[in-house]
Design goal:
The structure is a single chain. By secondary structure, the protein is of the alpha/beta class. Helix content is about 30%, strand content about 20%. The strands form 3 sheets. Strands 5-6-7-8-9-11-12-13 form an 8-stranded parallel barrel, surrounded by 4 helices. About 45% of the residues are buried.
């Protein structure tokens, strides 16, 4: 085995797919970051000659409970690219370099206190081959059909993981996005399909994280999520009542525009919840402060954060992740 190797799937030549230590990865903007370098050639070779290695890696992956003895969750999210949402701040294609994204994810997942990852099948398959998901919580992203900026964005079809895929691969939970615009009939179709997926997950005793928003279109046609206390309260009430059972439903919620409203908003449901991150731009410290207060509420069990930790303004993924973990 080579130095820095992380266990992975066997490929032609006998060695596992690996990522190597000691290098730096250039990311958008030109600044180096001290990430372990993913061996893309190994991943491609494995995918080409041994596609079955992904299922084999999933079958032998050591698992852990969704929530451990600490009772808190720290999940890194990376399901944005499948909607064509590649931007971070003013960097339009920050998430378009897959090797760079994988390097950032491997760095984040290696940090103490990080419980797992939320991603689509293509990214999770790569992480399985890299051995980066051992003893981690794995959330499969389920509905990715509402492409960013599309006229059908709110008719959010389930084009990602199905309940049977999550069960087959031994993943720990699923996640879905539920955006509701009272003026767009696509929202009704999404509501109905969301309810049926919640039913299917409950039948399998698999948790599903529902991320609800009330939203509306601006004059230029782009969608805006409403983060007012009233809107977030309504979205939580709607999401909590979907399906024939809420036994396995979790909520994934934003911090409201006024963080002081969160205590009242989170009284809307007894379902366990995690806070989402979103694109916080340059105000990383402001985001930490918002999360810190909301994490004290009784239903809030942790964080699911992506771009603001993987692509922090100062480029230091390790520091951003460790700071977020410290909030828990």
């Amino acid at each position: 085995m080579r130095a820095g190797q992380v266990g992975g799937a066997r490929h032609e030549g006998g060695d596992p797919a690996t990522y190597e230590g000691g290098g730096t990865a250039a990311h958008e903007g030109g600044d180096p970051a001290p990430y372990r370098r993913v061996d893309v050639a190994d991943l491609v070779r494995t995918r080409t000659h041994h596609p079955e290695a992904i299922a084999e890696a999933a079958a032998r992956r050591p698992r852990r409970p969704l929530v451990d003895d600490g009772g808190r969750l720290m999940i890194v999210a990376a399901d944005h690219p499948a909607r064509g949402a590649l931007a971070v701040g003013d960097r339009k294609f920050a998430m378009a370099n897959r090797a760079d994204l994988l390097e950032r994810l491997c760095t984040a997942l290696s940090r103490p206190g990080v419980d797992g990852v939320l991603a689509t099948a293509d990214i999770l398959d790569d992480l399985l081959l890299l051995g980066a998901l051992d003893h981690k919580v794995v959330l499969g992203s389920m509905n990715r059909g509402g492409l960013a900026g599309a006229s059908f964005e709110l008719d959010d079809r389930f084009t990602g993981h199905r309940p049977q895929d999550i069960e087959r691969l031994g993943f720990d939970a699923g996640k879905l996005l539920l955006r509701i615009d009272y003026d767009d009939p696509g929202s009704l179709r999404t509501l109905e399909s969301t309810a049926r997926v919640i039913d299917e997950m409950a039948q399998r005793q698999l948790p599903v994280f529902v991320e609800p928003f009330l939203c509306r279109r601006r004059e230029d046609g782009t969608l805006r999520n409403d983060l007012s206390a009233e809107a977030v309260t309504k979205s939580i009430a709607i999401a909590s009542g979907l399906g024939g059972s809420s036994a396995y439903t979790w909520l994934k919620v934003p911090v409201t525009e006024n963080p002081d409203d969160m205590a009242r908003v989170m009284e809307t449901s007894t379902l366990p919840a995690v806070l989402l991150g979103g694109d916080v731009g340059e105000d990383q410290e402001g985001a930490y402060e918002k999360w810190r207060g909301a994490l004290q509420l009784p239903t809030v069990q942790g964080l699911v954060v992506g771009r603001s930790l993987l692509y922090p303004a100062d480029g230091d993924v390790t520091a951003a992740v460790d700071t977020a973990v410290g909030l828990l």
